[in-house]
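Annual report, structural modelling task.

Input specification for the pterin-6-yl-methyl-monophosphate complex:
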Amino acid sequence: LPGLDRCRVVGVLNVTPDSFSDGGRWLDPAAAIDHGRQLISAGADLVDVGGESTRPGAARVDSEEECRRVLPVVRSLAAEGAQVSIDTMHAAVAAACVDAGAVLVNDVSGGQADPTMAGVVASAGVAYVAMHWRGHSDRMQQRADYDDVVADVVAELAQRIDDLVSRGVALEAIVVDPGLGFAKRAEHNWALLAGLPALLALGRPVLVGASRKSFLGALLADGSGVPRDVSEREAATTAVTALAAAGGAWAVRVHEVAASADAVRVAAAVAAARPGAAEVGGGS
Ligand code: PMM
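The model returned the following structure:
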């Protein structure tokens, strides 16, 4: 993946009927491709195409149906020069999408859902996001049980890295992700955002996916405790982007790209102005 002197913005493109915030909107391939182009023109560095919802309780999708959803979208956007990431737990989907031009495999299970994923990623030689995960969405919230959430997530991600490397995945290809909202309650998500330095200490780039998630809705609940609607969590999402970028995150994964694209540039400008920072950017 191209080097950048700032946090990357990964635009979410869910080609699903049932994702929590945009389910059904981009199920039609032409609509999905068009939305992918909009994400790029809004400033996305990568477009993350997904064909299986991971919302709590969502039904699983088989590889064939998932390929039917995502392949035309991955193929078209990659052919237009976009950097495409494929959000999948299925090795067969990852392999087909890499053939179609995807440069990154984003696996929310970190290789645990499909035992053949690591081999596919190893032989494809693409970048791989290993997210912290404790099981499929039908049972993940029962597993939101930690002694010290930051230490536990760091330890489990370290195990993922060791396992992936032992299966042939290049260490340099691995990006880690704390998996906000996956077997996490709100307090766990906040602790993990505060714990970004400990995640970075794993020595791998860190991707943060907070966009529109329910812990933001809960934070912004009205006086009677009704969570802020999913359509009104963008400013909070942008605030997380600014904090994550300032804290050294490699990428943020967001639905609404434009504001986060600005926020990562603000964070980079502040970092560049720090005494002792190397000269970066256009110099103006
Ligand atoms: N969150 C979702 C889906 N995929 N991938 C990574 N790497 N990290 C995340 O936090 C993540 C993800 C769920 O959000 P969505 O349903 O809005 O895509």
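DSSP finds ten helices and eight strands in the chain.
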